[in-house]
Write a structure and sequence with these properties.
450 residues; alpha/beta; 15 helices; 40% helix; 16% strand
Length: 450
């Protein structure tokens, strides 16, 4: 099986499933990936392509042992080269003294050849990998709410993606958009950027709004145009020298700037797309999976850039590190169009339920009955409604459904619960429906039984 960055674009649960599948795959596997956890889990042999030395180093060991062995190899090469250089310098010094005498000219020439052979016999040191210097621009001045959306909806034929999405992006605010694959996250960002029209609703650009859009598939790049031409069209006000300087900071130099964008690798396209953002003075960044295809060092650069940027950001990402660096104030959950304040619960959803020891348990909310160590949030809602003999509020039910959509292992009966709750329109659900759903099972994993 040949896999090139297989975890790109996958949500957390899909990544966890893929890692587990590959771990138990009985055939041969050749994978290119920047997903360190995947490497630690599935590989038992590493081919390291050293672009500086133009060689492939082979390590017959797992990922963690490879990292330690590679570091030891670097120290060994450095030590061997220093010793060889010392001996070669001594030979050359002696040869220079002997060359002045005609009787010793042949011996001097032999010493020079020995010094050259010594240096040829040692391996070159690995150069420090170059890393793109990523810094988002200082935002241009703008009004209080540079970007907002009202009543957005989108369908493809009979397939409804999302409905009634309302969003207000204030100056300097940070919002993360979460949802399973196919929930419409990329579609929403394309709408906000003006690249896709909604079926209903409108996007409103406030005073002084200036958007910078990073597309997941890099469709904003024109494949037939060169790197330089793409950059120039993104920042027409910059002179050629400034454009080349920015491209150089993103590791495009010399003939690289004349390459057509269509032949660039995934990582190079990511760097070029980020460079076009840096060339702007955007006060609202729309980022769709900005860390995809980046090596660990470049990913760290963009995480630091996210922390330092003072403008508004709306980001779609399955990368928990990127979301942590964003430090969002709010979260928008699709396809339910539920907006909420950011909390640790949502970080847990992003990490993925399979990574948690007790994936269906989260802390009970204040005022609700609790079980041992917490209680499944859907059962909190159901139990609250049943015990009080009344309907449950819209917010509580919606919150339960959202958690179920993200964490499908919450309860054994999640399909039943979701089937009646998905179409919920905002009114309270009656006791009879709640009781019917609860009676459809005998017990929940969290210990609440009927």
């Amino acid at each position: 099986m040949l896999l090139d960055e297989p975890t790109n674009h996958l949500d957390a649960d899909s990544i966890l499933w893929l890692r587990d599948f590959l771990k138990n795959f009985s055939g041969a596997l050749l994978v290119i990936s920047h997903d360190v956890e995947l490497m630690e889990l599935v590989v038992n042999r590493v081919f390291y392509l050293d672009a500086n030395r133009c060689v492939i180093d082979q390590y017959n060991m797992g990922w963690k042992n490879y990292l330690m062995q590679r570091e030891q190899d670097e120290h060994r090469r450095k030590r061997e080269r220093a010793n060889a250089q010392k001996k070669a310098n001594a030979l050359l010094e002696q040869a220079n003294k002997m060359r002045a005498k005609a009787t010793k000219a042949v011996a001097a020439q032999q010493m020079i050849k020995r010094a050259e052979r010594l240096m040829r016999g040692v391996q070159e040191e690995r150069q420090v990998d170059k890393v793109a210097a990523i810094r988002f621009p200082d935002p241009a001045p703008c009004g209080k709410t540079p970007l907002s959306a009202r009543g957005l909806s989108k369908s493809y034929g009979s397939l409804e993606i999302f409905t009634d999405v309302d969003l207000a992006i204030d100056r300097g605010s940070r919002v993360v958009v979460l949802g399973l694959n196919g929930a419409g996250k990329t579609t929403l960002l394309r709408m906000l950027a003006g690249a896709t029209q909604p079926d209903t609703g409108e996007v409103v650009y406030g005073h002084g709004a200036k958007l910078g859009y990073f597309a997941q598939e890099h469709e904003i790049l024109e494949g037939e145009r060169t790197v330089f031409e793409n950059m120039k069209s993104a920042a027409p006000d910059l002179d050629d020298t400034r454009v080349r300087t920015i491209l150089g900071s993103f590791l495009f130099s010399g003939d690289d700037v004349d390459k057509p964008a269509g032949v660039l690798s995934g990582g190079e396209k990511t760097r070029l797309s980020l460079a076009t953002l840096v060339a702007s003075s955007a006060n609202v960044l729309l980022l769709d999976e900005p860390t995809n295809n980046l090596d660990p060092a470049s990913r760290e650069e963009i995480l630091n850039a996210l922390k330092a940027y003072t403008g508004a950001i709306v980001m779609v990402s399955h990368d928990e590190g990127a979301v942590e660096a964003l430090n969002p104030e709010r979260v928008l959950l699709l396809p339910d169009a539920v907006e909420d304040l950011w909390s640790k619960d949502y970080q847990d959803l992003l990490v993925g339920v399979a990574r948690r020891k007790r994936s269906h348990i989260i802390p009970a909310r204040p005022g609700f009955p609790t079980g041992v160590g917490g209680i499944c949030i859907s059962c909190v809602s159901l139990k609250y409604g049943v015990h009080h003999g009344a309907g449950i509020g819209a917010a509580e039910l919606r919150r339960g459904v959202v958690f179920l959509r993200f964490s499908v292992a919450l309860c054994p009966y999640h399909r039943i619960f979701e089937s009646f709750a998905v179409g919920f329109a905002g009114e309270s659900i009656g006791f009879e429906i709640l009781a019917a759903v609860v009676m459809a099972k005998t017990a929940c994993d969290c210990g609440f039984s009927v």
